[in-house]
Amino acid sequence: MDTSYKKSTLIVRDKRLVVGGGGEVNATLPSNTTHWSLGGCQAVHLSGPTLATFPALRTLHLHDTTVIHLGYDFFMQSNTPLQTLKLSNSSFSELEDFINIHAHKIQVITLDNMTMKGTFKLLIATQEGIIMDRIAITNSHIDALGEINISSRYVKEFVLANNIISNILTSAIVHDSSHTLIKDNTIDNLSFLAFDTTSENLTLTGNSIQNLALEGLVINNATTLIITNNSFHHIERFGLAWLRSKDQKGSMVFTHNHFYEHGNGSLIFYFNLYNKNLVVNSNTLHAASCNCSILRNMTESNDTVPIGFKMDIFHTFKSTSTCQDGMGKETSMTSLCHEDVKTGEWNIAFITIVSVTVFGIMLMFLVRYYYRGRYKKLIQDKDEDHEYMIGDWIDDAE
Length: 398
What we know:
Strand content: 35-45%
Shape: elongated
Number of strands: 27
Radius of gyration: 37 Å
């Protein structure tokens, strides 16, 4: 059933629809409603046990509403048969706490083209044994994405795509999933442990992330990790360090990403990613002036990491990445690091030559000083002997 009241305020009470504030009932929905589309309103007020009054309701679509005023109890109807919930082209009045959805048979939740002011948090309680198929947040403007808490701790597919998000808060995404897609989002800040999840397959692609905090992206035991075509403007130390694959069987593809700041340790990965399934290719570092030290700094880590592992990280990126300077000139990191090596060799040679020269000069002066001292002493001894002989000759003459 499609219910639309353009430019009106709609109040939903049980099965009754009230337009405006006069209290007059404008429509009553039939009890056997299975699909309900409600929208085209200036504002809609939802509260009370409305969902529980429809024993056959399977789908609810709230759409094209300037402001949705959501009562805390509207979705807390555990006995509703609702399976699919979609909200689109609308905005919420500022939320003070979680949106509580206690729909025990819910399978799919989609939020599309929504405006969410303040912190958006979602608490989903399903019946024991019910596994959700999909949660998707797409094309939306979100001030702060807080915790999405699922009672089963698992959803088959989680999608976050084409959104503009100011902040993804700590523990926002902690549920497990079979597939996680984070695509084409603009994110100002990805907080510490914003993602802390076991996802069998993770795809992070086409995103622009201004700041990725320490351990902001923790993915455990993935079979497949795909990190492609992202722009990272700042990554804190170990921001990517906890992307972990399933033992040595997992794989990661890390290609065509762009890095605009080059913090120490920002390109450190978990050690078990370094297996035959790792693909690192065509990543670009952006800098006013390109040199090998940029990559060295990004792949340096603390002293507890084995030296061989540090070198693996550095050489993996050096052989496949480029650097683009402020003039747009792109140079391979292999070439830049080779020039650094040659420069280093020339520096060592120059220092060696200077050191040998200085040592030679000092040695020459020391030898000269030594022999000059010996010569003076020899002359002095000869003069003393000569004076002694003259003295003896005078004595004999007398």
